[in-house]
Amino acid sequence: MKIIGIVGSPRKSGNTEILTAHTLKAIVEEGLETELISLAGLDIKPCNACRACAEEEQCPIEDDLFPIYLKMKEADGIILGSPVYYGSATALIKALMERAGQISHSSKETFKGKVGGPLVVARRAGHNFTVAQLTFWFEILGMVVPGSTYWNIAFGREKGDVSKDDEGMRTAWNFGKNVALVVKKLRA
Ligand SMILES: Cc1cc2nc3c(=O)[nH]c(=O)nc-3n(C[C@H](O)[C@H](O)[C@H](O)COP(=O)(O)O)c2cc1C
Fold it and tell me: Is the Cβ atom of 82 under 6 angstroms away from ligand 1?
């Protein structure tokens, strides 16, 4: 059983990566395998609506997306982490959501029944809207989204700040525990 955490910040080793790694650590403690994938520095273009994925499970855009899609398809759970940029998820994670989501939708719902959910970091505001944006993606693709002890948000501006947000870190940890719990029950 494997869970992947995809970090949609263009900033390597930043707050979203710290929060996602923390969540994955809680999952590892439950005996599941995990992998963190940072999108920082990768080339992931938005969907161009060519509809080639409606014909076969592929994407003709030659960039870094398709190998990540295949990892998402293999995983039992998918966590998407994003910082808030201008009140919204980043363009980077949105591009992945559009492309991977569209391939899944067009290819016999390959993400259906997986477990997952969002993780969101911001300096000050925009968390709830961004959590909703990400959650809508999980829901429309037929995935199961466990809760935590709060919404999966945390505060931080400079790299590392998020580690000082005790409640945010605890919420992410508890979310990881619930992801592991639900995956185990679904796969039992
Ligand atoms: C382009 C840009 C837009 C941002 N917009 C917001 C915002 O709307 N609300 C907010 O609270 N923080 C905003 N921030 C701050 C980031 O969300 C914050 O620094 C976060 O910790 C970055 O996560 P990272 O370290 O994973 O990159 C913005 C930062 C950047 C670079």
Answer: no
